[in-house]
């Protein structure tokens, strides 16, 4: 399961509409790299791919995750920080044993 906060859901809907893919969603993936070993990747996509896990959130938002990446982010809550100091997605990932200061890299 992946949960999508209200703030994250609003941004996902806003960005899919802005990118001309109102039925689309945010693709989240995991790749090797970053200062902690693994890092999150993002892309706006019109539809899920075969085999994707699809998660629905507030405002009709959707997140697509490939099966391999899903193993690293099961149970995560995706949030979006709207403060003036540090706007961006925040991953509350219970599988992460450590994270870097920027929050986009982690280790398991």
Short description:
By secondary structure, this protein is an alpha+beta fold. It has helices at residues 6-18, 67-73, and strands at 3-4, 25-32, 38-45, 53-56, 62-65, 77-81, 88-92, 98-99, 105-107.
Structure notes:
- This protein is of the alpha+beta class.
- The protein has a single domain, classed as HesB-like domain (Hypothetical Protein Aq_1857, Chain: A).
- It is 19% helix and 38% strand.
- The protein has helices spanning 6-18, 67-73; strands at residues 3-4, 25-32, 38-45, 53-56, 62-65, 77-81, 88-92, 98-99, 105-107.
- It has a six-stranded mixed sheet with strand order 4-5-2-3-9-8. Strands 1-6-7 form a three-stranded mixed sheet.
- A hairpin with a 5-residue loop joins β4 and β5 (62-65).
- The chain starts with a strand and ends with a strand.
Descriptors:
19% helix; 108 residues; six-stranded mixed beta sheet; alpha+beta; 2 helices; 38% strand; Hypothetical Protein Aq_1857, Chain: A; three-stranded mixed beta sheet
Give the biggest sheet: 6 strands, mixed
In terms of per-residue confidence, which ranges show pLDDT below 50 for 5 or more consecutive residues? none
Would you list the SSEs in sequence order as H and E? EHEEEEHEEEE
Q: Taking Cα atoms only, what radius of gyration do you get, to the nearest Å?
A: 13 Å
The tally of strands reads 9
